[in-house]
Every structure is written in structure tokens, then in C-alpha cells.
Write a structure and sequence with these properties.
globular, Rossmann fold, 14 helices, single chain, 3 domains, alpha/beta, 7-stranded parallel beta sheet, disordered N terminus
């Protein structure tokens, strides 16, 4: 690397703090690739994070998440807010590549300096998010984005990580894609802060709304018995509880977007007034720390395994031939790392 290149690398974090999109893109690439060199810049940026509001957008494939995200970007830009977008795409288990195609639907914002869109591959992670998502959120936060939209991969029942990563989670549903039993299996009642029935001009939209309301009534009955506070109001004898609004929209026609943005703002106010926002931020911090710790421990364990027993593929071959006991080997490595 040239002297100029080294100097540029040394100032990478400072350039991100100044809002330099090129620097942020380079750092996110390093984060996504798992390059150890990214750690120092992330340490520099960390104290400058915590100002952006994170909105997660999840739902089944084909629900129109990308189109909805595009319209929400436009609504926030009309308010003069800077918007960061992380679009997570699935990684092929065969080639290791990803289409990263969600950005195609957001081309209207490609030249807007107040919008920064970045695609990430899942790299085989379950939960609908990439391993690098949390760190990339911090980069966008540090560079001055007011709102960060995280669009998950759209794999259905595995998309639960976003509820721990975002302040507000939007679950997007469409008529004709699964019944209420499927919705319960996917755990969407636990994930959603806001339901959006997209493509509401299709037959069956009212049926989806009715089924969601029935399931929420059932959840309230199980959780709190016959007594129940009024919707999003503070009861006299207990804590306030947020009831996810159910909204209908046709994102392709820009219908219902204003109400979605209004409800996101209402949920943000609710979180701040009840102290739930700080609770969610602690949950996110714990999740990211555990992921970081897991990565460091795994890296150390694999390095120790290679030094003492050989490369992973060699050890795997011995295990496959029953020449090595994977349980004893794992326990021995764990004991050595904990000493």
C-alpha cells in the first residue's frame, strides 16, 4: 500500500464522522468481509453513535418490502431527514454470492446525497440479518443519518433478530400469502410494532386485518386476563402497553405511506415516554456484544485447533471416519480457552 493509501486508511473513521460516503462504503466492505482491520475504526466511531432511530422492515418474500422502503425513504426525505438503508439479501449456499437486488427498486434515491443505501449478504446467518448488520448500523449512525431502515432478507419464520436490532419493527403482510396459523408459526405477533398490509387493493386484505385482530385479542386474553387497558393508553393500575396498529397500504401507488410514518413517530414517542427505548438499546447492545464475543472465541478456537490437531477440514475428515470424538474435542478446546 502506498503512503497516500496508508494515510487515507488512518483517517477512515474521521472521514466517516464527516459524512464521507466513500469512506463509509469502504469501512462497511471491510466489516462485511470480516477484516480485522475494521475493528480499530469501529472503536473510534463507537462513542459517536446512538443518535439515529432504527426501523426494521420484515415480512415474507414478495410482500413488497423494498417498494415500501423506497416510499418511506421519500417520506423522510420530504421532512428533511437523512436516511440510511441496509438491505440484506440471501447468500447462495452453493456459490457464496448474493444478488443484492433490493437497491434496484430504490434507484430514485441513487443521486440523493441525503440517502445512503448499502446492500449486505446474510453470509449464511439465520434470523434474517447479516452478521455485519449491527456494525454497519453504527457506521451509518456515526456518519450522521437520522433514520436507518433495515430491510431483512425475507425468509419468513427465521426473521426474529430484527426485533432486537431495531427500535421499531414493521411486519409487512400481503393478502393470499399464508393463513393465520402460518402467521403464528412465524412469531410475527411477538416481532411487530406495526403491521402493514401491503397490496391492500387485492382481494383478501380485510380478511388479513380481521385475522390479525383476532390473534392479538387472543394474545391479550392469555397475557392479562379479562382486564385490558385501552389502546396505547396508560392504565391506572399497571404499565403502559403498545398495541401494534394494523395499517393498509398500496406502496406501488404511494397509498398509506404517510400514516405509516406517523405511526412510527407515535411508537418512538411511546418508547421514549415509557423508557422502553433505553431497554431496547440495552437488548441490542447485549445481542451485538454476544455476537462479537462468539466470533472472537470461535476464531481463537479454530486457530488453536489448527495448531494442535490440524486444519478444520482434516479434523472433520477424522470425525467423519470416526477416528476422532467431536464431543471430547470440543470440550477440550472449550476448557483450554476458558483457562
Amino acid at each position: 500500500m502506498t503512503e497516500a493509501g496508508k494515510e487515507a486508511d488512518l483517517s477512515l473513521a474521521k472521514r466517516v464522522l464527516a459524512g464521507d460516503i466513500r469512506a463509509a462504503s469502504r469501512l462497511m466492505r471491510r466489516i462485511d468481509d470480516g477484516a480485522p482491520i475494521a475493528a480499530k475504526d469501529l472503536q473510534t466511531l463507537f462513542p459517536q453513535t446512538g443518535r439515529a432511530y432504527v426501523v426494521g422492515i420484515t415480512g415474507s418474500p414478495g410482500a413488497g418490502k423494498s417498494t415500501l422502503t423506497d416510499r418511506i425513504i421519500a417520506a423522510y426525505r420530504a421532512q428533511g431527514l437523512k436516511v440510511g438503508v441496509l438491505a440484506v439479501d440471501p447468500t447462495s449456499p452453493f456459490t457464496g454470492g448474493a444478488i443484492l437486488g433490493d437497491r434496484i427498486r430504490m434507484q430514485a434515491h441513487a443521486t440523493d446525497p441525503g440517502v445512503f443505501i448499502r446492500s449486505l449478504a446474510t453470509r449464511g446467518n439465520l434470523g434474517g440479518l447479516s452478521r455485519a448488520t449491527g456494525d454497519c448500523i453504527r457506521v451509518m449512525d456515526a456518519m450522521g443519518m437520522d433514520v436507518i431502515l433495515v430491510e431483512t432478507v425475507g425468509v419468513g419464520q427465521d426473521e426474529i433478530d430484527i426485533a432486537q436490532m431495531a427500535h421499531t419493527t414493521i411486519v409487512v403482510l400481503v393478502p393470499g400469502m399464508g393463513d393465520d396459523i402460518q402467521a403464528i408459526k412465524a412469531g410475527i405477533l411477538e416481532v411487530a410494532d406495526l403491521f402493514v398490509i401491503n397490496k391492500a387493493d387485492l382481494d383478501g386484505a380485510d380478511r388479513v386485518v380481521r385475522e390479525l385482530r383476532q390473534m392479538m385479542e387472543l394474545r391479550h386474553a392469555v397475557r392479562s386476563g379479562p382486564k385490558r387497558p385501552k389502546k396505547n393508553q396508560l392504565p391506572k393500575d399497571g404499565p403502559r402497553e403498545w398495541e401494534p396498529p394494523i395499517l393498509k397500504a398500496v406502496a406501488a401507488r404511494e397509498q398509506g405511506i404517510a400514516e405509516i410514518v406517523t405511526q412510527i413517530a407515535a411508537h418512538r414517542t411511546f418508547l421514549e415516554e415509557t423508557g422502553e427505548k433505553a431497554t431496547r438499546e440495552r437488548t441490542r447492545a447485549a445481542m451485538q456484544f454476544i455476537a462479537l464475543l462468539r466470533e472472537r472465541l470461535l476464531r481463537g478456537a479454530l486457530a488453536k485447533l489448527e495448531r494442535e490437531k490440524g486444519r478444520l477440514d482434516e479434523v472433520a475428515g477424522q470425525i467423519a471416519l470416526k477416528q476422532a470424538d467431536p464431543y471430547d474435542l470440543a470440550d477440550a478446546l472449550a476448557r483450554q480457552l476458558s483457562e
